[in-house]
């Protein structure tokens, strides 16, 4: 637990010291622990309205933000969380004490009154009780973010302010966190396109409010049985592109023990934890799904209704870049499962699915064996889920306030909700009835 707490605070504990996780290292750095929640301090940026042309997608001129700001990892991380945003890293007590450090926007928010007009910035434009954003990206990742995500360090805070102003104007009752680090997640996920980032932010909250079975009382301790089963975990080593490998094993789930929504809750919390890292925001993640032993009875639980919601969240309602989905040991039944999933996939995501069957050599062309556990022909030892479980469970306080209360914004409209109502439910039920014969045929 002490090692996990050290990793949560961003301190580098020796990777051999992590109980049951001797290979917790970055393959690119020769031993750097990768399970660190290195999220930058979250603070309110200069309250300076961005030019209207910039918000409309026109060419932006760099603002006098102070481009000489050092991009270095912080020595300490503030705790706290926001009412509807993603929790801040930090120990539980500190998280509660500093929960007010995150700028929350509500219906009576003063965000528009604290945003001066465009002009020469001064130190007075920063609120003294808010920590300033400090970039934790390495020089290589700054270059990668510039090339792949259109993120320019000299414009970064101006882009954040532009998105903040759009939220305050168009969704004043959204109840979202407005801190720099939080909003940056959505800008990076949409390559700094303001409109798309705003829609992603709205979808993020809409998804959470429209599926209470998944998001109510969502905290690590609530999904402990799923974690202990090994249904979802994160491999301890990064791939050569600096991406975490999220390993999902449906055969570890016993439907009689808990509903499928518990598995979805566990996956969502895992992604929330990973996205706290700026490195993950830039590099994205890779999914490894092992379908060995998946029967028809299990497959029937994942119908079009659940598939649509899950895929909708991953594609349009969560600020993460899914770079590859590797499927191994898939039985014939998976053809039916994929037939359910594919209509909801965007072409770009569908092209990132790789079906390897039982061919481990094919898998190794996508994920090097040095990263994989012995179960998948790798050389990193037996698959050990204990270290990731310990890290996630140690983050309990981070998630308590974030998911304890969800209030539907009064200005939300049906087209903003990623998951619609009864009409879609009926359509999905009809689709499931039409799909069942295909499932039986494949099985």
TrEMBL record:
<dbReference type="InterPro" id="IPR036273">
    <property type="entry name" value="CRAL/TRIO_N_dom_sf"/>
</dbReference>
<dbReference type="Pfam" id="PF03765">
    <property type="entry name" value="CRAL_TRIO_N"/>
</dbReference>
<protein>
    <submittedName>
        <fullName>Alpha tocopherol transfer protein like</fullName>
    </submittedName>
</protein>
<dbReference type="GO" id="GO:1902936">
    <property type="term" value="F:phosphatidylinositol bisphosphate binding"/>
</dbReference>
<dbReference type="InterPro" id="IPR011074">
    <property type="entry name" value="CRAL/TRIO_N_dom"/>
</dbReference>
<dbReference type="InterPro" id="IPR036865">
    <property type="entry name" value="CRAL-TRIO_dom_sf"/>
</dbReference>
<feature type="domain" description="CRAL-TRIO">
    <location>
        <begin position="219"/>
        <end position="384"/>
    </location>
</feature>
<dbReference type="Pfam" id="PF00650">
    <property type="entry name" value="CRAL_TRIO"/>
</dbReference>
<dbReference type="InterPro" id="IPR001251">
    <property type="entry name" value="CRAL-TRIO_dom"/>
</dbReference>
<feature type="region of interest" description="Disordered">
    <location>
        <begin position="1"/>
        <end position="64"/>
    </location>
</feature>
<dbReference type="GO" id="GO:0016020">
    <property type="term" value="C:membrane"/>
</dbReference>
